[in-house]
Amino acid sequence: MADCDGNCAACASKGSCATPKEDPVKPTLERIRHVFVVLSGKGGVGKSTVAANLALGLCLRGQKVGLLDVDVHGPSIPKILGLQGQRAMSDGEKLLPAETPEGLKVMSTALILEKDDEPIVWRGPLKAGVIKQFIGEVRWGDLDYLIVDCPPGTGDEPLSICQLIPEAEAVLVTTPQQVATLDVSKSISFCNQLGRRIAGVIENMSGFTCPHCGTFTPIFKTGGGEALAKRYALPFLGKLPIATEIGESGDEGRPFVVSHPDSPAAKAFMAVVDNLLSIG
C-alpha cells in the first residue's frame, strides 16, 4: 500500500489514508455495461429525483444497477431512497455501497460523513479525487447500468466524471420554460466539447393534472424539453408530470416508482426507463 495524493474521502475526513498503487478505475468500469450521467444546466429541475427513480425503474425492469451521487455539496440521493443515516462500510479492501430493498447499489458523500448536517468544504482537486475513489474503490460488482447524479452546471463534478469515464453518456433533465432550456443548452455544448454522447433529454415538471377535477394545467408551460431535443437533433426520452406524491415520497424516503407504481406519474417514469433501455 502507498500513500495517496491527498485527494480522497479518507483524507478529507481523517487526514490521511492508504490506497492501492494501481489505479482501480479501469477494472471497475470493465464490469459495468452502461454509464449514464444525469445532468442539468440549472438547479431546481428535479434532477436527483429523476436520477433516483430512473435507477430504481431500471431495477424494476430486472437490471443490475448502481447509483453514484456526486453532488458533493448537496447529496440528496440517500434521503430520497430512505438511506439517510446509513454509513458506508468497508470489507477491508473496498467500500461497500448501501443497498435498497430493490437491489439498487448506492454511494454518496452523505454515506461517508460523520453527521447528516456536516458541511463539505472541499476544493476542486479533492472533489475529483473522491469521485475517482467512489468509482474505483467501491465494490460495485457486475452492473448493467451505473447512473451518476451530478450537481447542476458544468463544473468540477461532471467534468471529473467525463474525464474518468470516457464512455459515459449524458441524460439531460430540464423543465419546460425557456430559462431552464437555455441553461440546459449549455450542458449540451459541454458534452459536445468533451465529445460525450447525449442519450437524450427528459422534460420534468411537464404540467399538473388535478386529482379532483382532472383539469390539466401547464404550470411551467409544456413542450420546452421536447423542442430543445428537436433543435439539437437529440432523442427525447419523455415527459414527467408534476405530482404531489413525488415530493412527498422523496421527503419520506419512499421511492416514487416503488411506492406509487400504478399512478400516471410512475407510469411516465417507467416509459422513460423503457426508452433508456432501448438506447442501451
Query: Mind describing the biggest β-sheet?
Result: 8 strands, mixed
What is the molecular shape?
Answer: globular
Spatial order of the strands forming the largest sheet: 7-8-4-9-3-10-11-14
Structural class: alpha/beta
Compute the average pLDDT: 87
Low-pLDDT segments, ≥5 res: none
Helix/strand order, N-terminal first: EHEHEHEHEEEEHEHEHEEEHEHHH
Q: Which percent band covers the strand fraction? A: 15-25%
Total strands: 14
Distance between the termini: 38 Å
Helix content: 25-40%
Please, how many helices?
Answer: 11
Radius of gyration, in Å, reads 18 Å
Topology:
Blueprint: E1 2-3, H1 9-14, E2 18-19, H2 25-29, E3 32-39, H3 47-60, E4 65-69, H4 77-80, E5 89-90, E6 95-96, E7 98-99, E8 105-108, H5 124-136, E9 143-149, H6 156-164, E10 169-174, H7 178-194, E11 198-203, E12 208-209, E13 216-217, H8 224-231, E14 236-239, H9 244-252, H10 256-259, H11 264-279
Parallel strand pairs: 3-9, 3-10, 4-8, 4-9, 10-11, 11-14
Antiparallel strand pairs: 1-2, 5-6, 7-8, 12-13
Helix pairs in contact: 3-11, 5-6
